[in-house]
Amino acid sequence: DSGVTQTPKHLITATGQRVTLRCSPRSGDLSVYWYQQSLDQGLQFLIQYYNGEERAKGNILERFSAQQFPDLHSELNLSSLELGDSALYFCASSVDSGTSYTGELFFGEGSRLTVL
Amino acid sequence: GIQVEQSPPDLILQEGANSTLRCNFSDSVNNLQWFHQNPWGQLINLFYIPSGTKQNGRLSATTVATERYSLLYISSSQTTDSGVYFCAVRVYKYIFGTGTRLKVLA
């Protein structure tokens, strides 16, 4: 158990719908990252938050948005869903501090999204 | 941006064999990690190794930061070692390699 909690574990929805994925980081970790892994593909970095603020942005679509709340949990919102959005969505956290970029990354078990 | 290449892309071994997985990266990094993604999709931390050598049971890893590569050694492989092995490097965000898909046959 990495200490990173993601919900839901599985989600099936229809095209055009909107879903929210939730992540609770490990206790004490200030950074939260979101990654997307399509079938048999690598991990694509979407976005990073540090202590409530956006720190880095990757290949995140405009239909997707995220935020980190004061209690440090994070949500990834996916809207106007398309078939191609079907994927495993991972949340990860690391302790980080200030401008330090050396924190070890720990992953949740992922949320498997299927868009029909 | 920084490029991360892993080799080989695919590997099939008989149980008990040894293997070496390689990760090359194109620029200086602050951190490097190895992960194992098991057949159920879970990403498991293997090593946090920005430099030097570490060992954990049958697995060991070496990172030579000045030459921009890292190696993951798996000895006496078992069927439970099957899955995909990723290295990830960090400048400010983590960038993942494309992975090595390992299948260990009984």
Helices and strands in order, then pairings?
The complex is a heterodimer of chains A (116) and B (106).
Chain A: E1 5-7, E2 10-13, E3 19-24, E4 31-37, E5 44-50, E6 53-57, E7 64-68, E8 74-78, E9 87-94, E10 106-107, E11 111-115
Parallel strand pairs in A: 2-11
Antiparallel strand pairs in A: 1-3, 3-8, 4-5, 4-9, 5-6, 7-8, 9-10, 9-11
Chain B: E1 4-7, E2 10-14, E3 19-25, E4 31-37, E5 43-48, E6 52-56, E7 59-64, E8 69-74, E9 83-90, E10 94-96, E11 100-105
Parallel strand pairs in B: 2-11
Antiparallel strand pairs in B: 1-3, 3-8, 4-5, 4-9, 6-7, 7-8, 9-10, 9-11
N-to-C series of helices and strands of chain A: EEEEEEEEEEE
Mean pLDDT of chain B: 95
Structural category of chain B is mainly beta
Radius of gyration of chain B: 13 Å
- Point out poorly predicted stretches of chain B: none
Uncertain regions spanning at least 5 consecutive residues of chain A: none
| Shape summary of chain B | globular
Biggest sheet of chain B: strands, sense, closure? 6 strands, mixed
Helix content of chain B: under 10%
Q: Could you tell me the number of beta strands of chain A? A: 11
Q: State the helix count of chain A.
A: 0
Any overview of this molecule?
The complex is a heterodimer of chains A (116) and B (106). Chain A is mainly β and 116 residues long. Chain A has no helices and 11 strands. In chain A, a hairpin with a 2-residue loop joins strand 5 and strand 6 (53-57). In chain B, strands 2, 4, 5, 9, 10 and 11 form a 6-stranded mixed beta sheet that branches. A 5-stranded antiparallel beta sheet of chain B has the order 1-3-8-7-6, with no helix packed on it. Chain B is built from no helices and 11 strands. The N and C termini of chain B lie far apart (41 Å). Classes of the chains: A mainly beta (116), B mainly beta (106).
